[in-house]
Amino acid sequence: MQQILVLIAVAVAVFFIARRIWKTLRNPKNLTCGCGCSGCGAADDCSEKATSLPTYKP
Question: Is the overall model pTM greater than 0.70, yes or no?
Fold first, then answer.
Protein backbone atom coordinates (compact mmCIF):
# COMPACT_ATOMS: atom_id res chain seq x y z
CA MET A 1 0.00 0.00 0.00
CA GLN A 2 2.83 2.41 0.83
CA GLN A 3 4.50 1.75 -2.50
CA ILE A 4 1.29 2.57 -4.34
CA LEU A 5 0.98 5.90 -2.53
CA VAL A 6 4.60 6.74 -3.29
CA LEU A 7 4.12 5.86 -6.95
CA ILE A 8 1.02 8.06 -7.12
CA ALA A 9 2.88 10.98 -5.53
CA VAL A 10 5.81 10.58 -7.92
CA ALA A 11 3.47 10.30 -10.90
CA VAL A 12 1.67 13.52 -9.91
CA ALA A 13 5.00 15.33 -9.51
CA VAL A 14 6.22 14.09 -12.91
CA PHE A 15 2.93 15.18 -14.48
CA PHE A 16 3.24 18.75 -13.20
CA ILE A 17 6.91 19.00 -14.14
CA ALA A 18 6.18 17.68 -17.64
CA ARG A 19 3.28 20.12 -18.01
CA ARG A 20 5.52 23.02 -17.00
CA ILE A 21 8.22 21.95 -19.46
CA TRP A 22 5.61 21.52 -22.22
CA LYS A 23 4.23 25.03 -21.66
CA THR A 24 7.75 26.46 -21.66
CA LEU A 25 8.75 24.74 -24.88
CA ARG A 26 5.44 25.50 -26.57
CA ASN A 27 5.78 29.27 -26.20
CA PRO A 28 9.40 30.34 -25.55
CA LYS A 29 8.59 34.03 -26.16
CA ASN A 30 7.06 34.26 -22.69
CA LEU A 31 10.25 33.17 -20.95
CA THR A 32 11.55 35.74 -18.52
CA CYS A 33 14.20 35.53 -15.90
CA GLY A 34 12.13 37.43 -13.34
CA CYS A 35 12.79 40.63 -11.47
CA GLY A 36 16.03 39.43 -9.90
CA CYS A 37 17.89 39.36 -13.22
CA SER A 38 19.34 42.41 -14.91
CA GLY A 39 20.20 40.63 -18.15
CA CYS A 40 16.73 40.45 -19.69
CA GLY A 41 13.91 42.72 -20.77
CA ALA A 42 11.77 41.92 -17.74
CA ALA A 43 14.24 43.69 -15.44
CA ASP A 44 13.14 47.06 -16.79
CA ASP A 45 9.51 46.39 -15.78
CA CYS A 46 10.36 45.45 -12.20
CA SER A 47 10.16 48.04 -9.50
CA GLU A 48 11.44 48.05 -5.93
CA LYS A 49 7.88 48.10 -4.62
CA ALA A 50 6.91 44.96 -6.55
CA THR A 51 9.80 42.90 -5.19
CA SER A 52 9.73 44.02 -1.55
CA LEU A 53 7.73 42.43 1.24
CA PRO A 54 4.78 44.32 2.69
CA THR A 55 5.59 46.36 5.75
CA TYR A 56 4.10 45.48 9.10
CA LYS A 57 2.21 48.26 10.81
CA PRO A 58 1.02 47.40 14.34
Answer: no
Rounded CA gap, 33 and 45, in Å? Answer: 12
Neighbour-count burial for 21-53, b at 16+ CB within 10 Å, e otherwise: eeeeeeeeeeeeeeeeeeeeeeeeeeeeeeeee
The DSSP code sequence of 10-41 is HHHHHHHHHHHHHHHHH-GGG----TT-SSST
Q: Which amino acid is at 1?
A: M
pLDDT per position as a tens digit, 7-40: 999 999 999 999 998 988 887 665 655 555 555 5
User: What is the distance, to the nearest Å, from the Cα of residue 54 to the centroid of all Cα atoms in its chain?
Assistant: 21
